[in-house]
Known about the structure:
The protein is of the alpha+beta class. Strands 39-50-47-44-45 form a 5-stranded antiparallel sheet, with helices on one face. Strands 40-41-42-43-46 form a 5-stranded antiparallel sheet.
Amino acid sequence: xxxxxxxxxxxxxxxxxxxxxxxxxxxxxxxxxxxxxxxxxxxxxxxxxxxxxxxxxxxxxxxxxxxxxxxxxxxxxxxxxxxxxxxxxxxxxxxxxxxxxxxxxxxxxxxxxxxxxxxxxxxxxxxxxxxxxxxxxxxxxxxxxxxxxxxxxxxxxxxxxxxxxxxxxxxxxxxxxxxxxxxxxxxxxxxxxxxxxxxxxxxxxxxxxxxxxxxxxxxxxxxxxxxxxxxxxxxxxxxxxxxxxxxxxxxxxxxxxxxxxxxxxxxxxxxxxxxxxxxxxxxxxxxxxxxxxxxxxxxxxxxxxxxxxxxxxxxxxxxxxxxxxxxxxxxxxxxxxxxxxxxxxxxxxxxxxxxxxxxxxxxxxxxxxxxxxxxxxxxxxxxxxxxxxxxxxxxxxxxxxxxxxxxxxxxxxxxxxxxxxxxxxxxxxxxxxxxxxxxxxxxxxxxxxxxxxxxxxxxxxxxxxxxxxxxxxxxxxxxxxxxxxxxxxxxxxxxxxxxxxxxxxxxxxxxxxxxxxxxxxxxxxxxxxxxxxxxxxxxxxxxxxxxxxxxxxxxxxxxxxxxxxxxxxxxxxxxxxxxxxxxxxxxxxxxxxxxxxxxxxxxxxxxxxxxxxxxxxxxxxxxxxxxxxxxxxxxxxxxxxxxxxxxxxxxxxxxxxxxxxxxxxxxxxxxxxxxxxxxxxxxxxxxxxxxxxxxxxxxxxxxxxxxxxxxxxxxxxxxxxxxxxxxxxxxxxxxxxxxxx
Length: 741
C-alpha cells in the first residue's frame, strides 16, 4: 500500500512494512488532487505544484519526475487527469484552463479550442472533467457544461436552457454504457444518454460531489452533506451517512474494488462499505490512512486492481486483496457504575433510593488492529426505545431518572465492522419515595374516604335543616307574590282600559280616511294608540294634506298627535293661514309655546316631523313645506324628490328657523307620496337590517302601473314580508295620491 504522510510525503505499506519517501524525493506538494495511470503504467499525480510522475520500474532515485511552472509550461494548480482513446492525457487546472499531454511527442500543450470556450469564466477554472467512450471531452464550469469532440474539435455548450439541472457543475462521470452523469451544485443531477436528457432534482443541501458505478450498474453519488446515495432506475434506493456509521457526511470521492466494496473518501478519513452485508469499516492514521482529508474526485484504479487515493497529505495506494479484516466479535465491558457521583459495585438486583437517581456508566472495548475505529451503541431500557447512533464516546450519564426498573446495555463494533451480539449490561431499580408506595397511597385513600363520608353526612343534615327553613319561606313568599300578582293584574287591566279609551278618543278626533279621489292611506300603528297621524282640509279653491310623525309612539305620541291636530285646524280654519310654509312656522310657534310652559330657558325635545301640501284645484299648482319628511312625485316612472327643511316642529328651537315653500306645477297622472320614517326604518330581511329609503323608492317606482288601492295592498304585503317574525319598530303611515285632470 502506498501512503502519503503529514510531513514526510510518500509511504509504501506492505503488511507490517512501511517505506517512507521524503518530500524532496517524492511529491512536490503533499496535497494530491488527481491520479492517473498512463499507457506505460506510470502513475501521474496532480498537485498544488504541478504534476509528479511515478515510475515503479525505475531505480529509487529516478522513480519520481516532476513538472511545474519552473521547468515547463504546465500550470501549478492541477485538478483533473483524464486519458483519451489516443492515450493522450488531458489535464484540468484551477486557473489556466486545460492542457493536453501528447503521449507520442512527450510534450505538454495548452488546448486552445477548449480554453477559448473557457474565456470569461472565473480564472478559466475547470470544476469537473470527464472523457466518454466516444472520445468526447466533457468540461464543467461555474456557468454550464461543454462537450468537445477530441478528434474533430467540434464543441457545444449545455445549460439549464437545454435541460441541465443547474449551471454550476460539481461532478462528471461516464458510466459503462456511455451515459454521462452531471452533478449540479444545489440542484440535483442530469443524466445524458445520446440525445436524451433527464433531470432529477435533489434537496438544496444534497449537492452531488462525485459518482461511481459498481458491478451491479448501481450509480453511487457522494454528496456535500448527506453522505452516499444509491441511485438506480431514476430513484434513490439507499443512503449511507453518519447514522449508518460513516465518519462524515461530506463525501469527496468514491471508488469500487473488484468485490463490489465501496470506498468513501471524506474530510475526516475514509470508510469502506461492504454493500452486500452493510458493514462499514473506518480507515484512519492507526491503520494506514494518514491523509485524513480526502481530495475531491482524487481516486483511481490502476491496471493491477490497486486503488489510489489523493489526500491533503499525499497519495495512498491500497491493495484490497491484502486487507483481511478481523471477523471476531469485540469484547465489551462496563467497568464503572456511579450513583450520584459515588462508585457503586456492579451486582445483580441493585436497588436504589428515589434520591439516588443520577446514574453514570463507563465502558470500553479492545481492538488491537485499530483502536480508533471502535464505535459503541448503548441504550437504557425504561428510557430509550432503541440503540443510540454509533459513537466513539466511552461514558454516558443519566441525571434525575424517575423511579422505575432499568437495564443499561452497551455493545461495540471493531474496525472490521463486526458488532458483538451479546451486549454487556447492568440492571437496577430506583424505588419510588415513601409517598408513592402502595401502602402509603392506600392509607391516604382510606382516610380520604372516611373524611368524605363524615363530611357528606354532616352536609346532608345541614341541607335538610336549610331545606325545611326554605320551604317555609317559599310558602310565605308565594302568598306575597300571589297577592302582588292580583294587584298588578288589576292595575294592568286599568291601564289597558285607559289606553283603549284613549284610542277611542284619538279615533273620534282624528280622521279615519281621506275623501280625495285616487288616494290611499296605509296606516299601521305600532301600539294601541299612535304618534303618527294625517290631517286634511278643503275649501272652494284648495285641498290641504299633511302627514305628521309626533315624538315617540304609543300614549305619548297619541297625546302629541291630538295637540298637533287641533293646532293645524286652528291655524288654517280660524287664523286663515293657508300657505304651507306659513302654516308650519305658526305650528312651530304654537307647539314650542305649549311645551315650554314656564321653563322658557330650557330646550325641549317634544315636537314632530311633517310634510304638508296645498293643491290648487284650478291651476293644479302644488305647494309643499316639510320638516324632515320629504315629498315624492312620480312622473312618467321617474321619482322627483322635494327635500324638506332639516329642522323639526317644536324640537330644539332655532333663532332663525323659517320653513321654505316649494311650488310644483303638476302634470296629468302625476302621483305624490307623503310618509313618515316608520316604513324605511323597519328591521327584517335575511340579515335583519333596516328596509331603508333606497329600497322604498325602488319599490314605489315598480308599482306605478297599478291602481292606488292595489298599491296600498302591495305596500302592506311588502313590509309585512320584510318584517317576518320581527317586531314592528315604529308607527307606519304612507299616503299616495294620483292626480287626473
